[in-house]
Amino acid sequence: MPSFNSASIATEVTVDAPPAKVREVLLAFEDGPKWTHRFIQGLAVRRAGTGEAISAFEAKPGDVVKLKTAQAGTSDAVMEINTPEKFGWRGGSMGFVAHHWFDILPSPEGEGKTLFKHSETFDGGVAFLFMAYSPLRGWLEGLYKTFNEDLKKAVEGVEEG
Question: Closest by alpha carbon to 114, among 80, 88, 148?
Fold first, then answer.
């Protein structure tokens, strides 16, 4: 629940493909470095308790998400949700907890299109770093928007020119 020590970032893009296709590209983590590298450089999921490598499609709440970003290095998070419409995890350190998720929804713009939402909520003592007035927030929003556009291009098969 948002509080005085909470901040959220939400971005979105419409993808000209059905939600199942967007989810298929998004959750094929092993292929991610082929289409995006500026923000999320690597994602992997390990089964809670055993550490066994599993597909993101098989992830369940409590499993471990191994995340590598260009900006923050490598960290572990805990899987929170994995449904056809939503995929997300929580993690954090240094005074905050972040809830990071992707919504993969039918677009109101028409049949066969997806409204892809990429969001994060920060809770804790350093959440102020991500509030509306912070330059860090604008920088992070830019990274999310770039990721969204990279995903859109990968799903739609658009080549960078």
Answer: 148
Distance between CA atoms of residues 69 and 60, nearest Å:
22
Domain 6-156 has CATH 3.40.190.150: no
Identify the three-state secondary structure at position 5. Answer: coil
3-state secondary structure of 27: helix
34-68 pLDDT, tens digit per residue, is: 888 677 777 889 999 999 999 999 999 999 999 87
Report the Cα–Cα distance between both ends of the chain, in Å, rounded: 43
pTM (2 decimals)? Answer: 0.87
Contact indicator for 156, 13 with CB cutoff of 8 Å: no
Helix (H, G, I), strand (E, B) or coil at 63: coil
Amino acid of residue 11: T
Closest CA to 63 of 46, 50, 39: 46
What is the 3-state composition of the chain as percent helix, strand, coil, each rounded to the nearest 5?
30, 40, 35
Per-residue pLDDT tens for 70-123? Answer: 666 678 899 999 999 999 999 877 667 889 999 999 999 889 999 999 999 888
- One-letter amino acid for residue 9 of the chain: I
